Amino acid sequence: MVKICCIGAGYVGGPTMAVIALKCPSIEVAVVDISVSRISAWNSDQLPIYEPGLDEVVKQCRGKNLFFSTDIEKHVYEADIIFVSVNTPTKTQGLGAGKAPDLTYWESAARMIADVSKSNKIVVEKSTVPVKTAEAIEKILRHNSKGIKYQILSNPEFLAEGTAIQDLFNPDRVLIGGRETPEGQMAIQALKDVYAHWVPEDRIITTNLWSAELSKLAANAFLAQRISSVNALSALCEATGADVSQVSHAVGKDSRIGPKFLNASVGFGGSCFQKDILNLVYICECNGLPEVANYWKQVIKVNDYQKNRFVNRVVSSMFNTVSGKKIAILGFAFKKDTGDTRETPAIDVCKGLLGDKACLSIYDPQVTEDQIQRDLIMKKFDWDHPIHLQPMSPTAVKQVTVTWDVYEATKDAHGLCILTEWDEFKTLDYQRIFDNMQKPAFVFDGRSVVNVDKLREIGFIVYSIGKPLDSWLKDMPALA
Ligand code: NAD
Ligand code: UDX
Predict the structure, then answer these.
(1) In this structure, which residue's CA is closest to atom 11 in ligand 2?
(2) Class assignment of domain 241-474?
(3) Does ipTM top 0.95?
(4) Which amino acids does the record list as binding NAD(+) (predicted)?
(5) Per residue, what are the HEC states of 100-144?
(6) Of 97, 152, 156, 403, which sits with the fewest C-beta atoms within 10 Å of its C-beta?
(7) Distance between CA atoms of residues 419 and 329, nearest Å
């Protein structure tokens, strides 16, 4: 029986390995992590991440051929194939701080593999890493090899949160990069055989190591670039009276462009886009390519601009001050169908409003008060350093309350901001919400969720990103 071990039981390691176990009953899969609480959660009925369809997959194979454990050394020792799916955060200090990825977790995983291995291994980069990481990992393993042979493969993951199980069941492609030596090709074949249990062969792409590593960064940069492009246009739509959803529909009908990833929003979030673009920028700079670095940097600048623009619109619409005013925040996760808040635009928007002394009442169907309070006091980039290693701050932000009831969040509020596109926000009783709010009552829709005309009929003053402005808002241009 082939044995697989995955180091890192997070958003990628957990779902990916659960699907491998489900689709390959002849393979034994162990997912290991240094976080005791995370592993306990994987072994309980309350999984550590919310992901539609994940519970059923885990239930079907846990205890049969899928195991979650903190005994990292045992499972690494026994495995034929080791996936490394640890976090690769942006460095917070030192050389390349704010751009370069921090490979501390990766390196410690590699050193541990070298320490405990007694047989040949295939080591698979599942984490997103800079180009040439495989070379560094090879060096660590080879210098400590004790005669053991390692083959390094790059097998980046393309799943998106909220649709992870669907994406894993039916991937657009699986990418495997390896050395062009006979041993490298044999390792590629061994990993191909795993995916071939359910992925059609023509969707399994094989490349050299560096192409696979770079393709992952490139794919995320392209996706994020589309969002920044449409978000940049949303500002122009507001200035001209064009409607961004009509523009993106018309543009996306061109089959060369396509309709996906053209939804204007308050900004993209998530653990990947910003981090991976910064990583790409850093690699370009290190390779003496400042023009290329600046090109990709602009994608992040537009994203920051979009979040600032939203805050400015809220403040300027409400007579240039939100001081002491209750503002309801609907949605805190970085997108719907996940409880993940990493790099969510809600953090920057809330911090912006708090900076203007607003009182926030936050509702999200999946995010806990603890998480929200932690996010609002955490420093930039600290979020991706495992939570169990972070000192918890005892103070909470006093101007912030968190509730599980959307109507309580909006009661007596002066305005409400929709920051995540949860489906339930489409069907709220907006008349009831309006009746219980202060007047004039404002809605700031950062996700094109509400029916603008209906809400205006009720009496709300509505701002929806990229849509023609309410006459009220036209008279109060957004602050510079
Ligand atoms: P995560 O933070 O959810 O999980 C990483 C886990 O690794 C944590 O539980 C941490 O405790 C564990 N860990 C760290 N060092 C360890 C060590 N030495 N030994 C054992 N466990 C260790 O991160 P994630 O979202 O799963 O992302 C993992 C990687 O996959 C990152 O490189 C990320 O860029 C990439 N990725 C993420 C996504 C996504 O949607 N989240 C998608 C594609 C790729
Ligand atoms: C992304 C990539 O899609 C995935 O392939 C990669 O493996 C990890 O990074 P993820 O961050 O989980 O996945 O979610 P994604 O659906 O890409 O959304 C990212 C952000 O962009 C979210 O905040 C989302 O709301 C936003 N977004 C997405 C838009 O603002 N507009 C869009 O049209 C699409």
Answers:
(1) 270
(2) alpha beta
(3) yes
(4) 8-13, 33, 38, 86-90, 127-128, 161, 272-275, 342
(5) CECCHHHHHHHHHHHHHCCCCEEEEECCCCCCCHHHHHHHHHHHC
(6) 97
(7) 7
List CB contacts of 118: < 8 A, sequence separation 6 or more: 77, 148
**Do the domains 2-199 and 241-474 sit in the same CATH topology, yes or no?**
yes
pLDDT of residue 472: 76
Q: What is the CA radius of gyration of the chain?
A: 24
**Residue 348 to residue 15: CA distance in whole angstroms:** 29
Q: Whole-prediction pTM value?
A: 0.95
Alpha helices in 196-289 (DSSP H): 209-240, 244-252, 273-286
Determine if residue 161 is labeled as part of a ligand binding site: yes
272 belongs to the catalytic site: yes
> What is the tens place of the pLDDT at every residue in 318-339?
999 999 999 999 999 999 999 9
- The single-letter code of the amino acid at 117 is S
User: Which residue has tokens 């061109």?
Assistant: 254
Cis peptide before 345 (omega within 30 of 0): no
Does residue 388 surpass a pLDDT of 50?
no
Domain regions of the chain by residue span: 2-199, 241-474
CATH code 3.40.50.720 for 2-199: yes
Q: How confident is the model at residue 378 (pLDDT cuts 50, 70, 90)?
A: confident
Residue 348 beta carbon below 6 angstroms from any ligand 1 atom: no
Q: Residues with Cβ within 6 A of ligand 2?
A: 157-161, 220, 223, 227, 261-263, 265, 268-270, 272-273, 334-335
